[in-house]
Design brief:
Length: 317
């Protein structure tokens, strides 16, 4: 029987992954930094801070597969004096520590949830990102994820641990936080948004689709040693996403025309170049490889994912 350790089990993706794994009859143990509530049926393991000194021994006992979600993610108001060092402490050194202890404990496979930021921040030439592209991470988070990927491949060569890397784009769904929930709230409140002039395409992945892909990567023989990009079955422009959200909410999509170059200028002058770039730039993914090698298909369309997210938002807010 497959026994899976999910790190970051109390997070947005972690909870969805645990629930999906339980529905499939898998044994699931959730590792968290502190004691917290997890879905019924999930074994609990508290590991404390995640870094190069973490003791994963109890969490790994009896486990044959690890899905590593726990990470230091994008921080809106960075307080660290050396942000890269903080990202590396958790995302690189914490991951190395987990992988080496997993190999020593007899774990067969580790699925690492990286980020499309390893590839870069945008696709400006009309060609989507692919697994074969040379990584060009731009920020501390992306750099830490790329270094962790390289460390995992080294450990795999040294120990025989099977490693699978998955690089998702923006993940959305019930429980989402960050910019997606802020955009959803703005649409719900009828805030006029200056995005009608944007003509871009963004790849997204619904949390249910990501969980399904990760569980497939955990068990499929062909996945060992591979890196995969995943997305929903369609890309969407920012205005198109706003219209989908508005339709789900039963509200009008309030957007007005504002030159993209002025949006970029505003971002540069206010120190918001990166957030504005994520709104106006394209970021497209080619997920042909996982579909071909693992015969994976997303179970949910973009519209279904948005509707589920909106339904959760209505219930909560």
């Amino acid at each position: 029987m497959t026994s899976i350790l999910v790190t970051g089990a109390n997070g947005f993706v972690g909870r969805a992954l645990c629930l999906d794994a339980l529905r499939r009859g898998l044994r699931v143990r959730g590792a968290t930094r502190t004691a917290c509530e997890l879905p019924d049926g999930v074994e609990r393991a508290v590991v404390g801070a995640i870094d190069g000194e973490t003791d994963w021994g109890d969490a790994l006992r009896g486990i044959n597969t690890v899905i590593h979600l726990a990470a230091r993610v994008h921080v809106m108001k960075e307080a660290a004096a050396d942000p890269l060092a903080e990202f590396l402490r958790v995302n690189l050194h914490g991951t190395e520590r987990l992988a080496r202890q997993a190999a020593s404990a007899g774990v067969k496979r580790l699925v690492y949830v990286s980020s499309i930021k390893v590839n870069g921040e945008r696709t400006g030439d009309g060609r989507p990102f692919a697994e074969t592209d040379t990584p060009v991470p731009q920020d501390a988070y992306g750099i830490s994820k790329w270094q962790a990927e390289q460390a995992l491949h080294r450990i795999a060569r040294e120990t025989g641990l099977e490693v699978v890397i998955v690089r998702p784009p923006l993940v959305y769904g019930p429980g989402v936080k960050g910019n997606f929930i802020r955009l959803l709230a703005a649409v719900d409140k009828g805030v006029p948004l200056p995005f009608a002039s944007i003509d871009n395409r963004r790849s997204l992945v619904y949390v249910g689709n990501l969980a399904d892909a990760l569980l497939l990567c955990a068990i499929h023989p062909a996945a060992a040693g591979k890196t995969y990009l995943v997305r929903d079955g369609e890309d969407v422009s920012v205005p198109g996403l706003i219209r989908e959200l508005a339709a789900g909410l039963g509200k009008p999509a309030r957007m007005f025309f504002f030159p993209v170059w002025l949006l970029r200028t505003f971002g540069s002058l206010t120190g918001l170049r990166a957030p504005v770039g994520r709104i106006v730039d394209s970021l497209r993914i080619d997920d042909t490889l996982i579909r071909k090698e693992l015969d994976w298909q997303p179970a949910f369309t973009l519209r279904q994912g948005v509707q589920a997210t909106v339904a959760w938002y209505r219930d909560r807010y």
